[in-house]
Amino acid sequence: MDERRIYGKKIAIDKDKVRGFYNRQAASSESKMGSVFLGNQSPEVLEQKNSYCKDYILPMLDVKDHTRILDLGCGIGRWAEFVLPNCGCYCGVDFSEEMIRAAEQTCNSQGGSFQLHCMSVVDAAAQDAAFYGSTFDLVIISGVLMYLNDPDVERIFRCLPSLLAERCTIYSAEPIGLERRLTLNDFPSQTFHTEYSAIYRTHEEYDVFFDPLLKSGFSVAKREPMPKFGENYADTARYYTILRR
Ligand SMILES: C[S@@+](CC[C@H](N)C(=O)[O-])C[C@H]1O[C@@H](n2cnc3c(N)ncnc32)[C@H](O)[C@@H]1O
Fold first, then answer.
1. Which of 11, 161, 169, 208 has its CA 20 to 30 A from that of 4?
2. Residue 130: which residues within 8 A CB-CB, separation 6 or more?
3. CATH of residue 211
4. What is the pLDDT of residue 1?
5. How far is the CA of 158 from the centre of ligand 1 (A)?
6. What's the 220 CA to ligand 1 centre distance in angstroms?
7. Is the pLDDT of residue 229 over 80?
8. 94 Cα to the center of ligand 1, angstroms
């Protein structure tokens, strides 16, 4: 059995290695988008993935000029480019200094009200609303939970309800394990010539994490698979979920 590709069992991954990976991605990738969209690195495919978020997902998130947005694991600030300057405030959080540097450039070039915090998403979710000035109306978590161990994902969803306004939206998009959980633990990535770690949880596992949200008045408004963009992985698929309260 390959100890770096583990099915079913819960294996913790090393978040410092994840941070190192994304620091290198931000500093060395040929394109900014290629540093956060792994997989196929052709400029056309990267553009298709970005347009899908902007043209298909964003309209469902109901962003208005007063909407306060928390982007957990914001990377280069891809979502900031979609929403600034036409939202109340964009707040991006990432633990990679290099990603935050790139996000700062994005936000400065867009204008509007923004704040960026270089910290772990777990610490960010545990802050009270006063830390950010007020509660948020929308949380975006896109391609981030896959890098967190289970106790940290649980902590985030336990904390979020009190950080959000009474009426609010959570958009969560992650690759999942289709039949069973898959963990890549220091797996050699051919595309990035480095070792890579991530957890592909099942829908059922994510449903357990969403439970505190359902108990505090949220319901699942939509969940569906995302397009494959020509990438065919046997064991995993990308899904998004929109929860509203
Ligand atoms: C696949 S990229 C996605 C970026 C962005 N959400 C997007 O959709 O373009 C994952 C990002 O999550 C960040 N990240 C991973 N684990 C994190 C953690 N524990 N705390 C803060 N940021 C984290 C990485 O540094 C990286 O920028």
1. 208
2. none
3. 3.40.50.150
4. 63
5. 19
6. 23
7. yes
8. 6
